[in-house]
Specification:
The chain is α+β, with helices and mostly antiparallel strands. The chain has helices at residues 14-25, 53-58, 62-68, 105-118, 227-236, 242-253, 255-260, 306-322, 330-363, 366-378, 381-389, and strands at 4-10, 30-33, 47-48, 75-80, 83-88, 101-102, 122-124, 128-135, 138-144, 148-158, 182-190, 198-204, 207-213, 219-226, 265-266, 272-277, 280-281, 285-286, 289-291, 297-298. Strands 1, 2, 7, 8, 9, 10, 18 and 19 form an 8-stranded mixed beta sheet that branches.
Length: 401
């Protein structure tokens, strides 16, 4: 007989694992479907702002996280052409851990999913969800992997991200390629000259990026670049891998990156790419399936809030799920829960996503950057305020965490 779980979660990354862990600790039976084998590397800025530390404490992982994460990120900066401008990162005053940190996804994702499993969540890994439909009020998901099986859940949560097209009702169809499509690249470097505790926004023609010290003494370098510029980069660097061609373009236009990586070497096999990336608001529920993380909405990576939004969106959803009784009048309760989650999500993230879009489009346009650099140099506190506006000091997790 097939077990029917209270919650079926598609995706075991930060959003899915956080939802699974929070629900399992509240006594729910939870199934998590994850297609990849962990540990795995992903294209990601690998930064978690200090606003996640109260949530990590609730998850029982704050001390483990801090023991292996990179140094306190106390300063923000802009690397633009020959200019480097720095300012203070806004501190999370009410939390005894006032600063964000970098941590590799192979470390973070494994830590979260293992904790969810230790608290009772059932993992189906590596399995891919190929079909999801609702029958007699229960979601049924067909899995393919080592074998084929069906997993059932009274509710379903999509935490599968947004980059992969598919046939699930919460996945986007394939889009027509556009010159403006953004592609992400990431690598980790050793022996860099990046100042510890500094996280710069990197600007260059038709793209933007960031750097942060992470675990193991490495620096995580990530960037996004338009499709048309990527093709131009590859023509300029024939025979080079795409990531190295993009990095050559960035170092030609950004002295800060050039100096930081002057004596550095990339970790073996650390280059990763993904895309196209299409930031925006997608919705918190589709066809009766709750959506968290990038499946619900995605900010431009320029503001380094992807992991934070993923984990925090799951926290917001779980608060609504556990505050209602799904056993009584399930259809009406599910509708009320969905609307309450949507309102909470929009309050928490809509402004963040829109602000990130403004910053990203500014960073990709050299003329706009050149016009505003004198202002930012005169008033560097603008960087601190921008970091604040993108959620670096906004705690969603309750004081009881």
């Amino acid at each position: 007989m097939t077990t029917t779980f209270d919650a079926l979660i598609l995706g075991g990354g930060p959003a899915g694992a956080t939802a699974a862990l929070l629900l399992a600790r509240r006594g729910w039976s939870v199934a998590v479907v994850e297609k990849s084998v962990f540990p795995r590397r992903k294209v990601c800025g690998e930064f978690l702002s200090a606003t996640n530390l109260p949530l990590l404490r609730e998850l029982g992982l704050a001390e483990s996280f801090l023991s292996i994460a990179g140094p306190d990120v106390r300063r923000v900066a802009i690397f633009a052409g020959d200019h480097t401008i720095t300012s203070d990162m806004p501190r999370l005053d009410r939390d005894r851990y006032g600063w964000g940190h970098g941590l590799g996804r192979e470390q973070l994702d494994t830590m979260l999913l293992n904790q969810a499993s230790a608290n009772g969540a059932t993992l189906f890994q590596p399995y891919a969800a190929s079909v999801l439909h609702k029958r007699n009020g229960v979601f049924e998901c067909e899995l393919t992997g080592r074998d084929s099986r069906i997993v059932r859940g009274r509710i379903a949560i999509a935490a599968h991200g947004s980059w992969d097209a598919g046939h699930l009702p919460t996945q986007s169809p394939r889009h027509t390629p556009l010159p403006s499509d953004l592609f992400g690249f990431k690598a980790r470097f050793l022996d860099t000259r990046l100042q510890p505790g500094l996280m710069p926004l990197i600007t260059f023609p038709d793209g933007y990026g960031g750097m942060v010290h992470t675990d193991g003494g490495a620096v995580s370098f990530s960037c996004c670049i338009r499709r048309d510029r990527l093709e131009h980069c590859r023509r300029e660097s024939p025979g080079s891998p795409a990531g190295e061609a993009v990095l050559a373009h960035i170092t030609r236009h950004c002295a800060g990156v050039r100096d930081a990586l002057l004596e550095a070497s990339a970790e073996p096999n650390s280059w990763r790419s993904a895309g196209p990336i299409r930031p925006g608001i997608r919705g918190t529920e589709r066809n009766g399936v709750f959506q968290v993380g990038n499946a619900a909405g995605e900010a431009h990576p320029a503001v380094a809030e992807g992991i934070s939004m993923a984990m925090q969106s799951s926290w917001l959803l779980v608060q609504q799920l556990v505050s209602t009784t799904l056993a009584d009048n399930r259809r009406a309760t599910a509708h009320v829960t969905a609307k309450a989650y949507e309102r909470a999500w929009m309050r928490a993230f809509a402004w963040r996503i829109r602000t990130a879009a403004v910053i990203a489009h500014w960073a990709m346009r050299p003329t706009a950057v050149a016009m505003t650099i004198p202002l930012v140099r005169a008033f560097p506190f603008v960087l601190t305020q921008s970091a604040r506006q993108t959620g670096k000091a906004t705690v969603l997790c309750s004081p009881s965490c």
